[in-house]
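Quick one:
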Amino acid sequence: MQNEKIPYKIYLSENEMPKAWYNLRADMKQKPAPLLNPGTHQPMTAEELSGVFCQELVKQELDDTTANFEIPEEIRNFYKMYRPSPLVRAYCLEERLDTPAKIYYKFEGNNTSGSHKLNSAIAQAYYAKKQGLKGVTTETGAGQWGTALSMACAYLGLDCKVYMVKCSYEQKPFRREVMRTYGASVTPSPSMDTQVGRKILAEHPGTTGSLGCAISEAVETAVGSEGYRYVLGSVLNQVLLHQSVIGLEAKAALDKYGVKPDTIIGCAGGGSNLGGLIAPFMGQKLRGEADYRFIAVEPASCPSFTRGVYAYDFCDTGMVCPLAKMYTLGSGFIPSANHAGGLRYHGMSSTLSELYHQGLMEATSVKQTEVFEAAEYFARVEGILPAPESSHAIRVAIDEARKCKETGEEKTILFGLTGTGYFDMVAYEKFHDGQMEDYIPTDAELEQYRNTLPKIG
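Output:
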């Protein structure tokens, strides 16, 4: 098929969908550092983690050696509602940019949750149901993870309690109502419902919240409620495993036409979409089979990779979760109320952090006004209204394509379009009205949080 003209959208058949998730940790010579018990500073055991997470998910979390995990048939059947997702050749964007670069994007917004988050939500809900649990608790930033989990729980008959970052709860009332339509309870975080929420509010009155705050509340509620476990939408190894379906499909679609990307770009908050998109390509790089350039794009207001430190830190603001070695700004860091709620996390996936630390991946940060300029440009040219999170990848993909115009290089660029922005119209309104500001934390601000990192001997 190499000589055929590549279609605007490349669809795989249902039979070509991945039957197993790929665990790229299996091909890493230097594995990600283990989660540590915050009390003893010893590696977390499966028994300790199973008090918070589902048993099967704990196995996936701790497994650094198994390359492939079979996707249960029930999950594959659910995937068929919206997968395989299209790989799009951005012919219109290429023409408008007048670039010799070839641009592809993997579009994950073709489902009611509006994003890639459903790939892991259905998996985590499935294992909770299989374990005989009554329900699950979680946090959500932009609301896409909470929406996805509420859909999955409704499908499987599980209760779903969502703690939504307060600034997103207020900015996106309709996202909240979609979750409630699917039967979830939605609480703005930090709240007075939990001990940790009351403590955070006492220390930071009027705070707009953060993913770290919401995680603390969700974990406290899960641990204190019989028949409940906590599930997380990003950061964890198990989530990157489930999201590998994105990259596996993208690679299969490209392979059909003999296309090999030079540069692969993804937005980065906790790492779920980026880790999923790059998984099979990074696997090839780790095994020495092929080389690629990987770029993680994060907001300048929450720059974990580009201005964080590589150290053990709490995964949550309330300091109730295990310690993870990751690029972090400090668990107490509460970012400005920017409009990419899904990227407002103080740390980064341990797996991606280790890859970045080894120099296998690059990272860059962009300001939100530049991001929305790219989002608007893309919407007018390609016809999809992108989520603010996805638009970070769009910004850098456009920049890379413009560099190709200057150099004349015919590079192939692949980026992840993680979801749609139809619940983000308050943000688009602020951008169009000239009311959007770029907030970048100072070195002094970051230093104060850095100084609070736990001391690990």
